[in-house]
Amino acid sequence: MTDFLTDVKTLRERARKEIDKGPVTDAYGADLQRVLQVLNEALATELVCVLRYKRHYYTATGLYSEPVAAEFLEHAGEEQEHADKLATRIVQLGGEPDFDPDTLSTRSHTPYDASADLIEMVKEDLIAERVAVASYTEICQWLGDKDPTTRRVFEDLLAQEEEHADDLRGLLERIPGSGGAG
Known about the structure:
Structural class: mainly alpha
Number of helices: 6
CATH topology: Ferritin
Distance between the termini: 58 Å
Helix content: 55-70%
Order of helices and strands: HHHHHH
Number of domains: 1
């Protein structure tokens, strides 16, 4: 046995001692309260994204609206899955997911958008995805090896947010008069 590993007897004693903490053990290296706050901010972000995409889905009109609206609906579903993953992780860590609609938009990293123009909808969604990409990249770096499970949750979300941004950029390039993504 190597020097850096805790002996089995000590591991078992510690596990019994604070059984109410669930998966959070002495080996947990992050600031738990700050991690819960960050998770709840990300939860708010994902919920606002769901609402924005749903609104855009239902209000998209015009010649190119059908494929764009379908993309909005797909993204809304995936953002809801993200929210569910974040809420699950919050509960695993002993926290409470914050779904309070009164403070949702103030806690979200991305804004809600009520654009009526199809091109503006796509642009606003692309901007929101870019905000999420930047935010989740920073969160992954901040977590490092202090909470690898939460970091992996954010890494999974990050990969899908990058895919969403790429999808939206592609839509802009195909809509005449949009000026592309730039």
